[in-house]
Amino acid sequence: MPTFKVIISGEGQYALWPADSEPPEGWRATGVDGVHQEHLNHIAEVWGVHGTIV
């Protein structure tokens, strides 16, 4: 099963990124790694209902 990491942009947007790849410029890893659904749960928890998951 592929693993992902949660990344965040300088503007506070969250996204999932393949765990074995570096985030794109302007984004950084949050330190949360795992499978897809675990990340969606984490993003929903820390970002709340006001953001958009990309």
From TrEMBL:
InterPro entries xrefs? MbtH-like_dom, MbtH-like_sf
Highest rank taxon of the organism: Bacteria
Report what the protein is called.
Answer: MbtH-like domain-containing protein
Q: Where are the transmembrane segments?
A: none
Q: Give the organism, scientific name.
A: Acrocarpospora phusangensis
Q: Which Pfam families match?
A: MbtH (PF03621)
Q: Which residues form the MbtH-like domain?
A: 1-45
